[in-house]
């Protein structure tokens, strides 16, 4: 199941608990949380501590696997383009300075300018 919202997390927890024929208090005891906390989890409360969610999932035998989406989030596209531009400018600046240093060294060796 793809989980995108706290409600999805709650639905999966409730479905698994129901499948295992466990009471909320059974899962709460195994996860080290209160029965009310399990109820909040199953109702999709968005502010639950992730460590407790992971313990509840472990108690229910649910593996939570993260995977990257095929495309980067839209908000990062502009930032990525900006970073590429900064890198290009930086590389251009370093190349320009190296070239200037090489030309200066050549002119010093040739006696055209003094150090």
Question: Could you walk me through the main structural features you see in this protein, from its secondary elements to its overall organization?
Answer:
It is a single chain. With 115 residues, the chain is mostly helical. The protein has two domains: 6-60, lambda repressor-like DNA-binding domains (434 Repressor (Amino-terminal Domain), Orthogonal Bundle), CATH 1.10.260.40; 70-115. Helices cover 68% and strands 0% of the residues. The chain has helices at 6-19, 24-31, 35-42, 50-60, 74-110. α2 (24-31) crosses α3 (35-42). The longest helix is centred in the last third of the chain and has 37 residues, at 74-110. The model has no long low-confidence stretch (mean pLDDT 88).
Helix content: 55-70%
According to CATH, the homologous superfamily of the largest domain is lambda repressor-like DNA-binding domains
Overall shape: it is rod-shaped
- Give average pLDDT, whole number: 88
Number of helices: 5
Low-confidence runs = none
Strand-pairing-aware structural class: mainly alpha
At CATH level 2, the architecture of the largest domain is Orthogonal Bundle
Question: How are helices and strands ordered from N to C?
Answer: HHHHH
Taking the alpha carbons of the first and last residues, their distance comes to: 70 Å
β content, as a range?
under 5%
The CATH topology of the largest domain is given as 434 Repressor (Amino-terminal Domain)
């Amino acid at each position: 199941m793809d989980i995108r919202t706290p409600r999805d997390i709650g639905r999966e927890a409730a479905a698994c608990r129901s499948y295992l024929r466990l009471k909320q208090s059974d899962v709460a005891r195994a996860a080290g949380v209160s029965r009310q906390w399990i109820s909040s989890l199953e109702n999709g409360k968005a502010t639950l501590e992730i460590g407790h969610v992971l313990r509840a999932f472990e108690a229910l035998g649910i593996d939570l696997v993260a995977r990257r989406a095929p495309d980067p989030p839209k908000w990062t596209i502009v930032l990525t383009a900006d970073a590429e531009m900064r890198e290009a400018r930086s590389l251009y600046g370093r190349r320009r300075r190296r070239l200037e240093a090489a030309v200066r060294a050549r002119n010093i060796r040739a006696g055209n300018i003094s150090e």
